[in-house]
């Protein structure tokens, strides 16, 4: 394995904050969909729903302070704040990363806001690598990823074939730290379908929704996929076949760049997708499903950008991952993006 000569850093502390647990059953599902059996088939047991008054910044701050404490630091030790935000922001024309810095008391330090959907919770580690590479004075970077579903804009059970959850994860990334060492980040995109899964109203193009519009009945992202291929069924088949193949391709590219082999991966941590998707991913990677993060995904639902670091923290704290283990953080996100970050525990 080669050592990255430009950015040498690892994970010095973990923290996360989750919305209230909600068991996945017909009674709770009928609040969001009129066909709960469809959602039950996804295999989730629990999801997290924050109280209405709890914001993404509040979730992020709790996770951030927990990570700082876990690293044995104080907020004065934080040199840089990076926030990955994967749902609708609390306000327009607003820097949520600065709001987080204010909330936790990090003053007169630089900060960075990433808003590329759930991908930024993984590729954001590559962004941090760039910060370490270009600023030799950096020692401790606080990286936080949060998903707080805006239920006015998005139906958490109709975006795609996942239940969307509320949660934040955080890590303190320390220069020269041996545990949880970042190796590389690779991503590529298919920009021709960049409009899939977007929120139609609230932005510059369409700031106000029609009077009869509701997120509870709005067409979901998968319907946009079907509409895109309505006159090209062969194209749809080819795209579906390519989804998991490209996950393998991006992982292989990352392994080649890091000088490791795919068969040396102890764990493949995918975003918290449905259980059917995990079965397909295990088949594509030719590994048993317990080499993936399927079990933890069923416990949490899809927490957007927060998925991977919550899962990584739980595996490290349970002892399922130990120093020396190689982990791939992978996924597919808006864009459409395929991505992989490799971490050596």
From TrEMBL:
Q: Which residue ranges does the record assign to the Beta-ketoacyl-[acyl-carrier-protein] synthase III C-terminal domain?
A: 255-345
Q: What is the protein's name according to its record?
A: 3-oxoacyl-[acyl-carrier-protein] synthase-3
Every copy of the Beta-ketoacyl-[acyl-carrier-protein] synthase III N-terminal domain together lies at 116-190
Q: Which Pfam families match?
A: ACP_syn_III, ACP_syn_III_C
Recorded source organism is Kitasatospora viridis
Q: Does the keyword Ribonucleoprotein apply?
A: no
Going by the entry's taxonomy, the superkingdom of the source organism is recorded as Bacteria
Query: InterPro entries given for it?
Result: ACP_syn_III_C (IPR013747), ACP_syn_III_N (IPR013751), Thiolase-like (IPR016039)
Single Gene Ontology MF annotation = 3-oxoacyl-[acyl-carrier-protein] synthase activity
Q: Where are the transmembrane segments?
A: none
Q: What is one GO biological process annotated to this record?
A: fatty acid biosynthetic process
Q: Which UniProt keywords apply?
A: Acyltransferase, Cytoplasm, Transferase
Q: Among its keywords, does the record have Hydrolase? A: no
């Amino acid at each position: 394995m080669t050592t990255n000569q430009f950015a040498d850093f690892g994970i010095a502390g973990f923290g996360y904050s989750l919305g209230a647990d909600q068991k996945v059953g017909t009674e709770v599902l009928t609040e969001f969909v009129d066909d709960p059996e469809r959602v039950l088939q996804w295999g989730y047991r629990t999801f997290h729903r924050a109280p209405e008054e709890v914001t993404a910044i509040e979730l992020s701050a709790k996770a951030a302070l927990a990570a700082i404490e876990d690293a044995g630091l104080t907020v004065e030790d934080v040199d840089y704040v990076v926030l990955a935000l994967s749902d609708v922001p609390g306000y327009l024309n607003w820097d949520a990363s600065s709001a987080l810095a204010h909330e936790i008391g990090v003053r007169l330090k630089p900060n960075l806001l990433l808003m590329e959907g759930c991908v930024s919770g993984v590729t954001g580690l590559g962004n941090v690598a760039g910060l370490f590479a270009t600023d030799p004075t950096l020692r401790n970077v606080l990286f936080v990823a949060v998903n707080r579903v805006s239920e006015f804009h998005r139906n958490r059970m109709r975006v795609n074939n996942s239940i969307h959850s509320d949660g934040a994860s955080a890590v303190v990334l320390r220069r020269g730290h041996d545990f949880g060492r970042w190796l590389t980040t690779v991503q590529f995109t298919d920009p021709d379908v960049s409009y899939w899964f977007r929120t139609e109203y609230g932005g510059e193009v369409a700031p106000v929704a029609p009077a009869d519009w509701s997120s509870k009945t709005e067409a979901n992202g998968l319907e946009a996929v079907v509409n895109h291929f309505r006159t090209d069924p062969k194209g749809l088949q080819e795209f579906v076949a390519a989804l998991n193949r490209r996950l393998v391709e991006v992982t292989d590219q990352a392994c080649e760049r890091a000088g490791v082999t795919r068969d040396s991966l102890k764990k493949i941590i995918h975003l918290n997708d449905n259980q059917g998707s995990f079965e397909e991913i295990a088949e594509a990677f030719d590994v048993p499903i317990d080499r993936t993060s399927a079990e933890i995904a069923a416990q949490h639902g899809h927490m957007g950008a927060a998925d991977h670091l919550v899962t990584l923290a739980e595996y490290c704290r349970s002892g399922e991952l130990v120093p020396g283990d190689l982990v791939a953080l992978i996924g597919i996100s808006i864009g459409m993006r395929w991505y992989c970050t490799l971490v050596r525990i």
